[in-house]
Write a structure and sequence with these properties.
Blueprint (H helix, E strand, L loop, with lengths): L1 H26 L3 H7 L5 E2 H22 L3 H7 L3 H4 L8 H23 L11 H5 L2 H15 L4 H45 L2 H28 L9 H21 L8 H20 L16 H19 L18 H7 L6 E4 L2 E4 L10 H19 L19 H27 L7
Parallel strand pairs: 1-3
Antiparallel strand pairs: 2-3
Length: 442
């Protein structure tokens, strides 16, 4: 009995200890955290706080990834006394991932509810948002540890569906961030070329666009060659998905080249490149004989790419103030770049000094981002990461729950629909000023 308990706690705390070390290094339990974020310069509460939450999510993701190690999976199997048996011993690792990220999801969801209605940093809840990092991390570890005593049935049947839909909604958020980034990248380099006559940026635009379009075209051709041939199937679904992605890419490019829209070849190239990757990822996960057997090996490349893109999106959302971005072109609220202005103002009386570094409280009059929505986004990111690390695990298209899914129509359609939404969002940012001429999209 004592040996079993020892193994259980070792398996649970093994990954969480690594997470704790990362978290403590990131958080530094309070004021020192701001010093880490604001090294050698002045920064704002709005930026430094979001960076801290992003680092905490990264630490939890590392802990979840550790659960997939073979030795940890074996230790987790001793949990069966408390959580019930599973029909496949390979499920213990993915279940460990689900449990760790369950704690992260509950944590960010709770903070999303707490921060509803916050208008400025003068609200009493601002202290909870911007401080108490040590307590927050202990809370995270406690939630994840408690999840290891929840029956497997809950994660295999109920939480799997939550993760699937939550992951889909985070993909949509990732699409919005991608569209915003494409506009910012293009406008920045165009401004350098037009205002300063920089040939470097001119050729950078041309070469970057060409590389993305050529890569997308080659990828599309390879998908037609390797994903549409089978001796037992017609592969009609695969042909439709590849062809429809090609058509939407041509449509997005055509709209971008119209003279009456504020688009460009670089934005369309980036959208085409990403949707082509997402199409390949979706087809690679289908339960089908249309894909060569050599391609069905679990190389982990798709998981790696998805994980990298997730953290790029999280980092971008943490650093980018939506009110100052091109997201306003989708009909969302647009305003001045208040965060940048706060750094330009001489408001030293309100600064918080930490080891010679200055942190500006730039939300005393009004918050620069919706705190509740920010935490909700991170809760969805936690669900998406759990899906990515487990290869979209727990739905197998109506068959027995608990099998490794990633290879099924459920995850395929999540990614395919995300492609279509991405193109629609991009086209809307181009045509919205024309459709709604009386609205300010600047």
């Amino acid at each position: 009995e004592a040996q079993i308990s020892k193994s259980i706690m070792a398996s649970i705390l093994g990954g969480l200890t690594l997470s704790s070390m990362c978290g403590e290094a990131a958080c530094c339990f309070g004021p020192a955290a701001v010093a880490c974020c604001c090294s050698r310069t002045t920064c704002t509460n709005a930026t430094s706080t979001r960076l801290m939450y992003a680092l905490v999510l990264l630490a939890m993701s590392i802990a979840a990834w550790v659960m997939l190690a073979p030795t940890v999976e074996q230790d987790l199997a001793t949990m069966s006394k408390y959580t019930g048996q599973v029909h496949n011993k390979d499920l213990w690792g993915p279940l460990g991932v689900f449990r760790v990220m369950f704690g992260s999801t509950i944590f960010y969801t709770l903070f999303s509810l707490i921060m509803i209605g916050v208008k400025s940093s003068s609200d009493g809840r601002a202290g909870i948002q911007n401080g108490f990092w040590g307590i927050k991390f202990l809370m995270l570890v406690g939630l994840s540890t408690a999840a290891f005593f929840i029956p497997n049935e809950f994660f295999l049947k109920a939480w799997g569906w939550v993760g699937l839909f939550g992951g889909f909604f985070f993909l949509l958020i990732q699409m919005i961030l991608l569209v915003d980034f494409s506009h910012c990248w293009s406008e920045s380099w165009m401004a350098k070329y037009q205002d300063e006559g920089s040939n470097c940026h001119k050729w950078g635009l041309i070469i970057s666009s060409a590389v993305m379009y050529i890569t997308s075209l080659v990828g599309t051709i390879l998908m037609y060659i390797f994903y549409t041939e089978s001796k037992t199937e017609s592969c009609a679904l695969q042909k439709f998905v590849i062809s429809f992605n090609l058509l939407t890419s041509v449509l997005a490019t055509g709209v971008s080249l119209r003279g009456d829209v504020q688009g460009g070849i670089l934005q369309a190239g980036l959208i085409t490149f990403y949707t082509t990757y997402l199409t390949w990822s979706a087809l690679s996960e289908a339960d089908s004989t249309c894909m060569p057997s050599d391609f069905q090996s679990e190389s982990g490349m798709d998981v790696t790419i998805a994980a990298i893109l997730t953290f790029v999106a999280v980092a971008y959302s943490s650093l980018r103030t939506s009110s100052a971005s091109q997201i306003g072109k989708m009909g969302m609220e647009a305003g001045a770049d208040k965060e940048k202005q706060a750094l330009l103002d001489d408001s030293t009386d309100d600064d918080v000094e930490s080891g010679g570094k200055s942190v500006v409280d730039n939300e005393q009059e009004e918050v620069l981002y919706n705190w509740s929505q920010f935490h909700l986004t991170f809760a969805l990111a936690s669900l998406y990461i759990s899906m990515v690390l487990t290869d979209w695990m727990v739905i197998h298209d109506g068959t027995e729950a608990g099998l490794m899914v990633g290879r099924g129509d459920a995850s395929l359609w999540v990614k395919v629909v995300s492609c279509w939404v991405c193109v629609l969002l991009y086209i809307w940012t181009l045509v919205a000023p024309i459709c709604l001429p009386n609205r300010d999209f600047s």
